[in-house]
């Protein structure tokens, strides 16, 4: 047993789970005792779901970076903390030991301080997957600033919305980012966003691609110049700012069923304990192992299982700048081979896309270092699960199917590798501290085996969302009001005769496209911005690789252009408003949408048509104009 709180048998799991539910304060208090606190908490847990008010370890004082860096220096100072593989395999990789990472985080914390960043300030980070992104995130945490990382695939408009919502006055970015064959001009996108954000005081720009950028006097500074200033002062350590366990660590924007993404707020203490606990237990991490999580740090998976979980545990985390299919579809396997990766954690979309290239790219790659495989982000289908098991894990690596969300901070339902049973396509059993239940439409609990319903959680775990930034009521209505006294996940699930959970997908108007969460209302708003569009309705449909594709029904009144061109214009509009990740896969022009007499769009019908399941449209007699369904059906775009 490598960590005092590492579970090492199925019985051990059962005991831990039972204790965590009977006595959550005793259970989590003991685990939290293994971390570095400047002052112990006053109370482990204080909560109600009505407001909601959720406070873990309140009164406890800490800085998460002392747990991720300082406390490892003595024993692990020369061990690799981050291994970085560049986009271009010809370029040199980088390894940062704990000592080096500590040094660089301190150095950049000084830069932030010198540029006026203080505790509680919001700092937006918009960078590619380079070590400086990890350094920027950790430096924010060290000075007590609240980081808000924005994925590189979001547009200027999306960035501006997030900057305005968080009132972020500071930005850390790069000139550009390399992704596969592309070179993305990040600073240009930031410049476009800043037209609408005059309150931004400072932009710090790291040089990655040497693409031309405009640096505005008084606002924009180069990362390298600022580091140089700290060097001339002799690189003093930056004393970590003391935070309360319930002070905000970060904001991460995610999509819901309304048109506007919400800023999910996580705090320092509970998030630290939960990400570490789940990392060490789900993956059964052993010291010195190389953990390769392929997510982008712009998403919660990267926050929790590239940065805070592995670093808190003194582990080695591999960060990859590129994409799985460039320069060829063997890239993941080259990386596993090159660094002797032990744990590979990726998304079903990536597996499905690599499956499409056959077994050729796997040939000649030594995958014998792999011990554990993981998936996250969307339901995994049987075929992909077995391909992963057979061809990547060679049938000797347990697969953990980890279900969780931006709002949950860390893994909620998953088998623990090699410790608890696994079942293809099932996330299986809850983590200790997590009590899932299924409810029907009326909020009545559905008990028993082989049943399905809406997935809720009964009481708080340390990584749970605390609020939505600047709008607590939104947090309450989104998660805590559908079913009183419960946290509602937005997912549907079924439970088998073993009590194992299988997540079947979202039951609200949220799509999961290639593991990215996108609200249908957001896409509709973007489509409706196009001058010729009268109205639109967006639904998901099953997509072989992406899991779900985006199907848009559009009423168009514009006069010029042929359909193909108008489609391109609409797609371009969505790309500008949200980002390329939200581009519709299919756009069908319609003359009307199926609406009830009260004007509500019947998405159920549109979903069925998009899926091609026109036999089971259900009762359409309540529609204002039932004929419209037949018209839409005739114009359906096949897949
Ligand atoms: O629908 C579930 C799906 O992803 C949603 C959460 O998305 P996001 O907040 O972006 O976080 C993704 C990474 C944690 C969930 O509501 N989801 C996540 N993991 C799984 C999953 N669906 C099925 N199986 C999973 N393992």
- Uncertain ranges: none
Question: So what's the CATH class of the domain at 97-244?
Answer: Alpha Beta
Bin the helical content. Answer: 25-40%
Largest sheet: 7 strands, mixed
- Ligands in the structure? adenosine-5'-monophosphate-propyl ester
What strand line-up does the widest sheet have? 5-4-17-16-18-19-20
Mean pLDDT: 96
Number of strands: 30
Per the principal axes of the C-alpha atoms, what is the gross shape? globular
Describe the structure concisely.
It is built from 19 helices and 30 strands. The chain is α/β, with parallel strands linked by helices and 639 residues long.
Structure write-up:
The protein is an alpha/beta fold and 639 residues long. Among the domains are: 97-244, Rossmann fold (3-Layer(aba) Sandwich); 510-634, GMP Synthetase, Chain A, domain 3, CATH 3.30.300.30. The protein is 31% helix and 23% strand. The protein has a 7-stranded mixed beta sheet with strand order 5-4-17-16-18-19-20, sandwiched between helices. The protein has a 5-stranded parallel beta sheet with strand order 7-6-8-11-12, sandwiched between helices. Strand 1 (43-48) and strand 2 (53-58) form a beta hairpin. It is globular. The termini are far apart. Residues 254, 299-301, 376-379, 401-406, 427, 489-491, 503, 505-506, 512, 517 line the site of adenosine-5'-monophosphate-propyl ester (PRX).
């Amino acid at each position: 047993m490598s960590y005092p709180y590492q579970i090492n048998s199925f019985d051990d799991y059962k005991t831990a789970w039972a204790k965590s539910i009977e006595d959550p304060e005793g259970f989590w208090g003991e685990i939290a005792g293994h971390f570095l606190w400047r002052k112990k908490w006053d109370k482990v847990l204080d909560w109600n779901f009505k407001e909601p008010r959720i406070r873990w370890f309140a009164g406890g004082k800490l800085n998460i970076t002392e747990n991720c860096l300082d406390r490892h220096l003595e024993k692990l100072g020369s061990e690799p903390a981050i291994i970085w593989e560049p986009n271009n395999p010809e370029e040199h990789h980088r390894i940062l030991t704990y000592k080096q990472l500590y040094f660089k985080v301190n150095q950049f914390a000084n830069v932030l301080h010198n540029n006026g960043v203080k505790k509680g300030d919001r700092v937006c980070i918009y960078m590619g997957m380079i070590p400086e992104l990890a350094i920027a995130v950790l430096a924010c945490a060290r000075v007590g600033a609240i980081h808000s990382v924005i994925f590189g695939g979001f547009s200027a408009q999306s960035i501006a919305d997030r900057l305005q919502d968080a009132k972020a006055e500071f930005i850390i970015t790069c000139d550009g980012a390399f992704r596969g064959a592309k070179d993305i001009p990040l600073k240009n996108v930031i410049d476009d966003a800043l037209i609408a954000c005059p309150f931004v005081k400072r932009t710090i720009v790291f040089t990655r691609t040497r693409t031309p950028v405009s640096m505005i006097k008084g606002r924009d500074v180069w990362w390298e110049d600022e580091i140089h200033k700290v060097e001339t002062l002799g690189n003093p350590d930056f004393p970590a700012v003391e935070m309360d366990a319930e002070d905000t660590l970060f904001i991460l924007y995610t999509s819901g069923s309304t048109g506007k993404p919400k800023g999910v707020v996580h705090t320092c203490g509970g998030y630290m304990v939960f990400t570490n606990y789940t990392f060490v237990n789900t993956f059964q991490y052993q010291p010195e192992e190389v953990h390769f999580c392929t997510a982008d740090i712009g998403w919660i998976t990267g926050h929790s299982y590239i940065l805070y979980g592995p670093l808190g545990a003194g582990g080695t985390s591999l960060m990859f700048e590129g994409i799985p299919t460039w320069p060829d579809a063997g890239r993941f396997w080259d990386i596993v081979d090159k660094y002797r990766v032990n744990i590979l954690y990726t998304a079903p979309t990536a597996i499905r896309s690599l499956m499409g290239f056959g077994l050729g790219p796997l040939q000649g790659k030594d995958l014998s270092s792999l011990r554990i495989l993981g998936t996250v982000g969307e339901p995994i289908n049987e075929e992909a699960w077995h391909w992963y098991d057979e061809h990547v894990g060679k049938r000797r690596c347990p697969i953990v199917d980890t279900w969780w969300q931006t709002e949950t901070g860390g893994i909620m339902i998953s088998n623990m590798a090699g410790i608890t049973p696994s079942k293809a396509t099932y996330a299986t059993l809850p983590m200790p501290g997590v009590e899932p239940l299924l409810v029907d439409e009326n909020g009545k609990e559905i008990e028993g085996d082989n049943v399905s319903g809406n997935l809720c959680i009964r009481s708080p775990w340390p990584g749970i969302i605390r609020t939505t930034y600047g709008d607590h009521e939104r947090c309450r209505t989104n998660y805590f009001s559908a079913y009183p006294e419960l946290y509602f996940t937005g997912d549907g699930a079924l439970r088998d005769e073993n009590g194992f959970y299988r997540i079947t997908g979202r039951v609200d108007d949220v799509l999961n496209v290639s593991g990215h969460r996108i609200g249908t209302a957001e896409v509709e708003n973007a489509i409706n911005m196009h001058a010729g569009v009268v109205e639109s309705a967006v639904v998901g449909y099953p997509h072989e690789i992406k899991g779900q594709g985006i199907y848009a029904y559009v009423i168009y009144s514009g006069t010029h252009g042929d359909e193909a061109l108008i489609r391109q214009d609409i797609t371009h509009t969505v790309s500008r408003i949200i980002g390329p990740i939200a581009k519709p896969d299919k756009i069908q022009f319609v003359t009307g949408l199926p609406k009830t007499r009260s004007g509500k769009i019947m998405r159920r019908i549109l979903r069925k048509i998009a899926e091609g399941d026109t036999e089971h449209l259900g009762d359409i007699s309540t529609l204002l104009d039932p004929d419209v369904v037949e018209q839409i059906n005739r114009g359906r775009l096949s897949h």
